[in-house]
Every structure is written in C-alpha cells, then in structure tokens.
C-alpha cells in the first residue's frame, strides 16, 4: 500500500474483506487459541511447515493487522505489537544486548526506560552513557568497541530537545552500531526515523497512536530478521503481548491519526503563542518556537512541531503545583497525546526517579510544567490556563 499517501494508508486495511463477510473494519479475534483440523495440522504448524495461527501469544489476526499497519506507516519491513510501550522498549533492548555491551542513550529519556537501563546495568552488566547528542564530536568519543546501540528519543520529554537522527545514523554506520528511535512524541505522521536511516523504531502506542486515553500498548518496527528474533525471544518468552481488543482499539485510533495530529499541532501553536506572552511564564520550550535552538532541525526532520509544550512559571514547585490545582478543563495527569489536554509536573511525576542532579542538568527544574495540548477548542484551553496562571 506504500504507493498511497500516509493519510490514506492510516485508514485502509490489509485484511481480505472477502474472507470476512465484506466487513469494512478489521474483525476482532478475541480468542486465546486456535483449533487445528487434526493432529497432523497441529504438528505442521508447530514445525513451521504450515502457516497459520496457534495461540494468541504467538500471533492473532487482529494483532497481525496492526503489526502490518505500523510497519507500513513507518516504512519498515516488519512490525510487532506489545502490551505497553515499555514492553516494546524492553523487548527491543533485551534482544540487542549481551552482558558486557555498552549503550549510548540520549539524555532525558523516558523515566522507565532509564529504570530499565539501570536494571540491565545492575543485573546483566550492560553499561550505558546518558549523553546530550547535540555535540557529535563529543558523542563520537563516547563510542566504545563494545557499543551495541544508540538509543534516541526526539523530541525528548519534557525538555523538547531534538536529536538529529540523520547525523547520529551517519556516526553509527561507521561502527556497525544499531540506532533505535523512540518515536512516541511524533507518531509516524510527524516523523519517520527509518526513512532517515534508523534501524528500529519503538512507540508507546498509548499516546498519539491510540489517541483516546483508553489503552496501554507498544509497537516496534525494524528489519524482518531482527523483529523475528524479538518475536521468538524477548516477546514470546518474556511475554509482553498485546490483547486482540487493544490491537483493535489502536487500529480504530490510527484511522484518525492524521487529522488528530494536525489539530494537536494547530492547538499547540495557538497555546504556545499565548503562553509566550504571559508575564508569569518565565521560560517556554516548544520546537515550533522560531527562536527555539533547534527550530531548523525540527523543520528538517519533522512534518510539524507536535502537541507538547513545556514551560516554567515564576516561584518554583509551589507555584507550579498551584497552577495545576487551579485548572479545571485541563486535567492533571501524566501520559500525552489524548483528546483531553493534560498537564503534569515532571520533577515530581514522570522524572521523579531520575536523581535531582541529573534532572537539573537536563533542565527539569521544579518550576517546569509539561502540557499535552488536546483537541478541544483552543480558546477554551487557553481560557483555563490563563485563569490558573492569573490566580497565583
Ligand atoms: C509513555 C512513554 C513510554 C512508555 O510507554 P507505556 O505505554 O506507558 O509503557 C516510552 N517512551 C515514551 C517517550 C513515552 O512517552
């Protein structure tokens, strides 16, 4: 289907409608297992001589539809679906590493990804360096003979720092190092890392891909060989598989991804302009800000600037908490990419597990708030924010 535009591919299905009574939408196969016609067929399926489903942890038609769709959207060879974004992140990282390996990680990665890295360091002696990837020469110096992969998030939560995917790929290529990109903040609609040369893309599909705040799920896309290895090891045997119903919800959510993202981006631009003129907002980070350090890079590697804005208010943690407590339309919650506008306080919420010193180095101060701009009327969102800002 890759000859059609992304907006079209988001909507159209891969399954054969004729085999499903002409069903317009992908059927939901809410089943744990699949019956064999006879013992020999069961034997042939297990031996891999006959294709077909066996048991839903190993594959399910609704899940297959989603996996084919995400591979198509990211323009990779093969996709896999997981029961959470962390399921995808951990399955990919665990498949890549062996004891004694080293990883380069972009500074400010998702809190639980950091937690996972600490865990594999302690348990499996896989070392890692957290580095800011804007100085490529500094980065190159950090590469060791045992560096297995470079793991990037861009833009990074909540500081919105970008990593230049193409430049990182160019460095990694010289040493046969794999590049993994967590594309959660953009979705394939705003950024396609594989087209920029990355090897593997992971998503928390809980966010923009699901888009409706009703499912926890993850996705990964890469080469057929690598994804097959993940499927048969760190997914099948570790067990982070998506439920058919959650896969079905994601297929439903994906149909509107393009129009939702357009609206998220439009609303975020509107809110950014309002926030940047408010006297109590002391600092604001948004890739769509023309004076943002990496504005040009954002324009180069992203289709649009996304729906996330971080900003600081005068008065530290108490002031930040006061703003959150004074909101009524905007909901105080972690997560992002939902129809509802959400606000959270990274220092005490998503990044509370990161040591304070590291946190401050990344720019996550006690005054920083992160806003996931939703799909409401932007005037209503601003009205609520302005009211909360004016109250303290
Ligand atoms: C939420 C998130 C994750 C983890 O995803 P879950 O679905 O919550 O497991 C990973 N990376 C990023 C950037 C995220 O925002």
UniProtKB/TrEMBL annotation:
UniProt xrefs under Pfam families: Cys_Met_Meta_PP
EC number: 4.4.1.11
Gene Ontology terms, MF aspect: methionine gamma-lyase activity
Superkingdom assignment: Bacteria
Cofactor: pyridoxal 5'-phosphate
Keywords: Lyase, Pyridoxal phosphate
Alphabetized InterPro entries for the sequence: Cys/Met-Metab_PyrdxlP-dep_enz, Cys_met_metab_PP, L-Met_gamma_lys
Enzyme's top EC category: lyase
Family according to the record: Belongs to the trans-sulfuration enzymes family.
Descriptive protein name: Methionine gamma-lyase
Source species taxonomy: Bacteria, Bacillati, Bacillota, Bacilli, Bacillales
Gene designation per UniProt: megL
């Amino acid at each position: 289907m890759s000859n059609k535009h992304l907006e079209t591919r988001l909507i159209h299905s891969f399954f054969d409608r004729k085999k499903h009574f002409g069903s317009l939408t992908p059927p939901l196969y809410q089943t744990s297992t699949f019956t064999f016609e006879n013992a020999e067929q069961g034997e042939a399926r297990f031996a891999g001589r006959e294709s077909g489903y066996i048991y839903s942890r190993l594959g399910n038609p609704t899940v297959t539809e989603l996996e084919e769709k995400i591979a198509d959207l990211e323009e990779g060879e093969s996709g896999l679906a997981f029961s959470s974004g962390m399921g995808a992140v951990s399955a990919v990282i665990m498949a890549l590493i062996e004891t004694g390996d080293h990883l380069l990680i972009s500074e400010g990665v998702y809190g639980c990804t950091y937690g996972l890295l600490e865990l594999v360091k302690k348990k499996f002696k896989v070392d890692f360096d957290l580095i800011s990837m804007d100085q490529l020469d500094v980065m190159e110096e950090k590469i060791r003979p045992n560096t297995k992969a470079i793991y990037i998030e861009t833009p990074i939560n909540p500081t919105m720092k970008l990593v230049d995917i193409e430049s990182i790929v160019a460095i990694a290529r010289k040493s046969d190092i794999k590049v993994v990109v967590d594309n959660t903040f953009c979705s394939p609609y705003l950024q396609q890392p594989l087209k920029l040369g990355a090897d593997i893309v992971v998503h928390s599909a809980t966010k923009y891909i699901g888009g409706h705040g009703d499912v926890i799920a993850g996705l990964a896309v890469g080469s057929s060989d690598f994804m097959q290895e993940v499927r048969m090891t760190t997914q099948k045997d570790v067990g982070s598989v998506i439920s058919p119903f959650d896969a079905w919800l994601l297929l439903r959510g994906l149909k509107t991804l393009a129009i939702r993202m357009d609206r998220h981006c439009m609303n975020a631009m509107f809110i950014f302009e309002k926030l940047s003129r408010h006297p109590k907002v002391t600092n604001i980070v948004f890739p769509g800000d023309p004076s943002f350090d990496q504005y040009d890079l954002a324009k180069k590697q992203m289709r649009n600037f996304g729906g996330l804005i971080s900003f600081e208010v005068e008065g530290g943690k108490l002031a930040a908490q006061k703003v959150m407590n004074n909101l009524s339309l905007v909901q105080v919650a972690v997560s992002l990419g939902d129809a509802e506008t959400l606000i959270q306080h990274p220092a005490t919420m998503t990044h509370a597990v990161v040591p304070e010193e590291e946190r401050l180095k990344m720019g996550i101060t006690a005054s920083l708030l992160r806003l996931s701009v939703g799909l409401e009327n932007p005037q209503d969102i601003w009205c609520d924010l302005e009211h909360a800002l004016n109250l303290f």
